[in-house]
């Protein structure tokens, strides 16, 4: 999946590109949420779709071994990963529109004791962009100590980009998205309005254990309902 | 720690407890590097490889080939950072990973891109997360690593496996190999020489081996111990295992140790044990005769079985010590070892010894030493150890240092003095330890004194310089003042000239006044 350099730099709105995540590494965000016999395993990570399929099984076995989960998880995990990968691959052959599209990306996640809230704009046409680099810089700049936050941020960004990419594929046949994007880009002033400053500022909160428990309980309740 | 050499670039990581400084062979093609890699890492610390190896290295970690074209070969003047392998059982600290540079001519964005595609940051991440573990002896699992590393899990896994295979993370020494062995090239050569000499005798000693295990690496019969890998159905003798003569994908932890002696020997029936005991009662330490009495068992088997008997130790202690000594030497001759083994046995007996007859075979010399020491019993081993200590102390005071180099060099020198070490000395091991400590203290003091004197000398120098500069300054000051005066007189002269041109008596007076003032 090589990006079309011409497409990314030219102002031709109607160029199409083969589907891919619009970042420099074509990595797929994979989310796992498996429950077997009351034991729940949730995870989220990025996967390189060009890895051989044997890699999936290896990874599943490794994870189960490291986390000491019952072996029934191996097949489940492998299946889940495989299905998400095939879904990605099925989209790969199709076209997607790129147009000038700057989209807002929102981060609202909680990793262990750290709460991250942020919003920023991302250029979908920048095929050299990298959520990983962003996540790394974010963590260094804001002094985030928990090493698990970085991957979570990168994953969240990727997931959103993936969603948007899927949408752009789905609506590739329609031209509505294109026009909207164009209008949006033209209207934006380079300077942000003051009232929007707070929204676009990153917030990193460290929670205490009780708050974490409370939030977790609330999330579970929301998930069940 | 970075160092550059014009032709080679190398890789070193410091283990916990200091650096291991050893030599390795230079490898000019990847296959050689690879075959040598594990044993080189295991026995030595430094890998030297030239540019051509780089692609092979990448291939071994399944680096996507489409990305290799993005990487430059490591340029000659620039080098990779240094990593030494932690092989020596001391564990791994993993904190000296520094930035990888691919030459100074690359722009920083290219650098970061290269680093990213290479996954070096993954390596950093894994290594640093490994080092930040509060309990350094726990291993870091792949899942922990990939949770903390930003990147796709496939490449993280490959890097993780690579690091684990080569012992750069999660390195755990074998359970029995607590001997702080210092390997140098000569020793390794003599190792191989010795181990090869003992191997054929191992065969002759146990002719009745029912199950012969052929090593799939070197195609020789495994004698003392072998390592079996069930996953790939491999059997390797101890030497091949150490040298890493196995396939690329096989992890060294997948081998399990199979003791040949225990495996091959059928269980001793009670009759046989009875015969054995009777024979020992009659013949004492004449194992030849004992073996004859116990039909069908070789001497070695008799001895090992005897040791394993619960009361074996007492019997050994009861016999005459001189006899035991003789037997000790005879045993060695029978084993057909070179004379060097004796000294090695003693010098390594110096360090913590194990009585288990078949110690960790990853170190054949140590295994031999341990075996022999177990054969002959505690007192003889002690005697041998103290003789070795005495010999070490005889050389020079600098002998018993903590630095690996000198210790190993003295073990080498011991080879020549081996035959002289027959007599026992009264010094116990503890005494030698105290000596060592006192000598260490002495040396520390010497070092401090030396540093003090150097500091004094330098201070004197600086003071001299200061006084010299002060003189200079005052001189310059004087000159400046002279110049000022000259300037003033010049000014006065100019004025007088001016006033004299215009004949005015008042002006002349004023000039004179001016001159007086000046």
TrEMBL record, chain A:
Transmembrane segments: none
GO cellular component, one term: nuclear chromosome
Pfam families: SNF5
Highest taxon above the source species: Eukaryota
InterPro entries named among the record's database cross-references: SNF5
Protein's cellular compartments: Nucleus
Entry keyword set: Nucleus, Transcription, Transcription regulation
Any one of the GO BP annotations: chromatin remodeling
Assigned protein family: Belongs to the SNF5 family.
Record's protein name: Transcription regulatory protein SNF5, putative
Species of provenance: Actinidia rufa
TrEMBL record, chain B:
Domain of life: Eukaryota
SWIRM domain segment(s): 126-180
A GO term from the CC aspect: nucleus
Residue ranges of every copy of the Myb-like domain listed in the record: 265-310
Disordered: region residues: 404-424
Keyword Nucleus: yes
Chain ranges of the SANT domain: 263-314
GO molecular function: DNA binding
Record bears the keyword 4Fe-4S: no
This protein's UniProt keywords: DNA-binding, Nucleus, Transcription, Transcription regulation
Entries under Pfam families matching the protein: Myb_DNA-binding, SWIRM, SWIRM-assoc_1
Protein name, entry field: Switch subunit 3
Protein source organism: Actinidia rufa
């Amino acid at each position: 999946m090589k990006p079309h350099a011409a497409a990314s730099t030219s102002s031709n709105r109607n160029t199409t590109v083969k589907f891919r995540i619009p970042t420099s590494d074509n990595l797929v965000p994979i989310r796992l949420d498996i429950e077997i016999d009351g034991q729940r395993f949730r995870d989220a990570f990025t996967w390189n779709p060009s890895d051989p399929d044997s890699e999936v099984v290896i990874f599943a076995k490794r994870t189960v071994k490291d986390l000491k989960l019952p072996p029934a998880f191996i097949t489940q995990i492998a299946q889940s990963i495989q299905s998400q990968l095939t879904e990605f691959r099925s989209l790969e052959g199709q076209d997607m529109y790129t147009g000038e599209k700057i989209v807002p990306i929102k981060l609202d996640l909680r990793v262990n004791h750290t709460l991250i809230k942020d919003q920023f704009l991302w250029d979908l046409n920048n095929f050299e962009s990298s959520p990983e680099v962003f996540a790394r810089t974010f963590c260094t700049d804001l002094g985030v100590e928990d090493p698990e936050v970085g991957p979570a941020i990168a994953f969240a960004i990727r997931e959103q980009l993936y969603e948007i990419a899927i949408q752009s594929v789905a609506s590739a046949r329609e031209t509505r998205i294109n026009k909207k994007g164009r209008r949006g880009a033209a209207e934006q002033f380079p300077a942000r309005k003051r009232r929007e400053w707070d929204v676009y500022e990153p917030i990193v909160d460290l929670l205490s254990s009780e708050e974490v428990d409370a939030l977790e309980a609330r999330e579970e309740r929301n998930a069940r309902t | 720690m970075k160092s550059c050499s014009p032709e080679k670039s190398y890789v070193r990581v410091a283990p916990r407890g200091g650096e291991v400084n050893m030599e390795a062979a230079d490898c000019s093609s990847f296959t050689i590097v690879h075959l040598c890699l594990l044993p080189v890492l295991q026995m030595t610390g430094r890998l030297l490889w030239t540019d051509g190896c780089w692609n092979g290295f990448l291939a071994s970690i399944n680096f996507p080939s489409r990305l290799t074209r993005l990487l430059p070969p490591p340029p000659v003047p620039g080098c990779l950072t240094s990593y030494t392998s932690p092989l020596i059982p001391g564990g791994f600290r993993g904190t000296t990973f520094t930035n990888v540079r691919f030459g100074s001519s690359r722009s920083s964005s290219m650098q970061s891109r290269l680093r990213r595609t290479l996954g070096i940051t993954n390596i950093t991440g894994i290594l640093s997360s490994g080092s930040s573990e509060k309990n350094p002896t726990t291993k870091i699992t792949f899942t922990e690593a990939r949770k903390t590393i930003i990147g796709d899990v496939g490449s993280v896994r490959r890097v993780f496996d690579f690091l684990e295979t080569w012992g750069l993370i999660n390195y755990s020494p074998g359970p029995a190999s607590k001997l702080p062995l210092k390997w140098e090239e000569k020793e390794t050569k003599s190792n191989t020489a010795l181990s090869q000499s003992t191997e054929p005798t191992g065969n002759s000693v146990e002719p009745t081996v029912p199950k012969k295990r052929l090593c799939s690496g070197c195609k020789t019969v495994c004698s003392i111990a072998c390592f079996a890998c069930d996953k790939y159905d491999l059997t390797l003798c101890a030497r091949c295992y150490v040298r890493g003569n196995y396939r690329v994908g096989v992890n060294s932890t997948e081998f399990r140790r199979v003791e040949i002696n225990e495996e091959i020997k059928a269980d001793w029936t009670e009759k046989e044990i009875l015969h054995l005991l009777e024979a020992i009662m009659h013949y004492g330490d004449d194992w030849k005769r004992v073996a004859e009495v116990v039909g069908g068992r070789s001497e070695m088997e008799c001895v090992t079985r005897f040791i394993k008997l619960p009361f074996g130790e007492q019997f050994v202690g009861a016999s005459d010590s001189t006899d035991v000594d003789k037997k000790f030497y005879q045993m060695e001759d029978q084993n057909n070892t070179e004379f060097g083994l004796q000294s090695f046995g003693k010098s390594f007996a110096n360090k913590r010894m194990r009585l288990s007859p078949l110690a960790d075979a990853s170190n054949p010399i140590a295994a031999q030493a341990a075996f022999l020491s177990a054969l002959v019993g505690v007192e003889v081993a002690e005697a041998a150890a103290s003789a070795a200590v005495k010999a070490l102390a005889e050389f020079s005071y600098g002998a018993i240092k903590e630095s690996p180099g000198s210790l190993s060099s003295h073990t080498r020198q011991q080879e020549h003095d081996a035959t002289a070490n027959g007599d026992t000395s009264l010094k116990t091991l503890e005494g030698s330890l105290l000596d060592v400590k006192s000598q260490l203290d002495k040396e520390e003091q010497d070092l401090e004194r030396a540093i003090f004197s150097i500091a004094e000398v330098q201070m004197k120098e600086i003071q001299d310089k200061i006084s010299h500069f002060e003189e200079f300054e005052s001189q310059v000051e004087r000159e400046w003042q002279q110049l000022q005066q000259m300037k003033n007189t010049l000014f006065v002269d100019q004025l007088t000239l001016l006033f004299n041109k215009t004949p005015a008596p008042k002006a002349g007076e004023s000039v004179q006044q001016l001159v007086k003032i000046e």
